[in-house]
Design a protein that fits this description.
Number of strands: 10
InterPro entries: AAA+_ATPase, ABC_transporter-like_ATP-bd, ABC_transporter-like_CS, ABC_transpr_PhnC, MetN_ABC_transporter-like, P-loop_NTPase
Number of domains: 2
Bound molecules: adenosine-5'-triphosphate
Keywords: ATP-binding, Cell membrane, Membrane, Nucleotide-binding, Phosphonate transport, Translocase, Transport
Structural class: alpha/beta
Protein name: Phosphonate ABC transporter ATP-binding protein
Pfam family, one: ABC_tran
GO molecular function, one term: ATP binding
Radius of gyration: 18 Å
Distance between the termini: 32 Å
CATH superfamily of the largest domain: P-loop containing nucleotide triphosphate hydrolases
CATH topology of the largest domain: Rossmann fold
Largest sheet: 6 strands, mixed
CATH class of the largest domain: Alpha Beta
Helix content: 25-40%
């Protein structure tokens, strides 16, 4: 279980980016964080793996406080937290399977990683994961030759080979066409259940969030104004988050 308690962050004095954010997520659940631009969604994700240093609160992953970890502990904890990015962050000139194997780098010495020393077991697992994301026949193709949706599926396989407890997705479908976005959201949801992990995604697409996520967290001006199962996300709640005028456009 992931439990965030009273998380707070200011980038500048007297200008809080996050105030008193508290929520819990169980394993096997897919959570969407929604809210207007600048609300603080990315700041929450980056705090969860300590890419930014927040100011106050607790982030407990299965009871262990990520914020209290020293450097060595944090390196170990980060293996348990996979990341998926809007722009995929793949090495385009390398093959699909090499990119998936990069997810193992957190488990290796710098030298082993640099010379691409992976075990047979790791290679077999990479192929199995590529099969799960529907890309087994692309294993030896360069990533530069893939579509956006395919690249994001490589990103998902790369995160899963870390054996994460949590996957954090920063706008994972923002660069995708509607069909690929739908496909990636369904895949994230299905794999979250299959691997019994926690998946947290920042999203601007409220319709897709409601359709695929189990839980929705709404952030407005650095404050959590909504936290409930996705079925309960009403038009009133959306209007409260984004303003009345935006509701129709956002829900469609
Ligand atoms: N490195 C930074 N230095 C100063 N202020 C920052 C920094 N990063 C974010 N902020 C500010 O913190 C607030 C929250 O930003 P954040 O990027 O978390 O929002 P967001 O909800 O993810 O937005 P978007 O949907 O546009 O990505 C904003 O007011 C933003 O300007």
């Amino acid at each position: 279980m992931l439990e965030v308690k009273n998380l707070a962050k200011s980038y500048q004095k007297d200008k809080p980016a996050l105030t008193d954010i508290s929520f819990k997520v169980d394993s096997g659940k897919f959570v969407a964080i929604i809210g207007p631009s600048g609300a603080g969604k990315t700041t929450i994700l980056r705090s969860l793996n300590q890419l930014i240093k927040d100011d106050d609160g607790q982030i407990l992953l299965d009871g262990e406080d990520i914020r209290a970890a020293n450097k060595a502990e944090l390196r170990k904890l980060r293996r348990q937290i996979g990341m998926i990015f809007q722009n995929y962050n793949l090495v385009e000139r390398l093959t699909v399977i090499e990119n998936v194997l990069h997810g193992r780098l957190g488990y290796k010495s710098t030298i082993s990683g640099m010379i691409g020393r992976y075990t047979e077991e790791e290679k077999r697992e990479a192929l199995e994961l590529l099969d799960k994301v529907g890309l087994s026949e692309f294993a030896l193709q360069r990533c530069s030759e893939l579509s956006g949706g395919q690249k994001q599926r490589v990103g998902i396989a790369r995160a899963l080979i870390q054996h994460p407890k949590v996957i954090l997705c920063d706008e994972p479908i923002a660069s995708l066409d509607p069909a690929s976005a739908q496909n990636v959201m369904k895949l994230l949801k299905d794999l979250t259940v299959e691997f019994n992990i926690i998946c947290i995604a920042n999203l601007h697409q409220i319709g897709l969030a409601k359709e695929h996520a189990d839980q929705i967290i709404g952030i407005r001006k650095g404050q959590m104004v909504y936290n409930d199962v996705s079925e309960n996300l009403s038009e009133d709640a959306i209007a409260d988050l984004y303003g009345t005028a935006a509701v129709k456009e956002l829900v469609e």
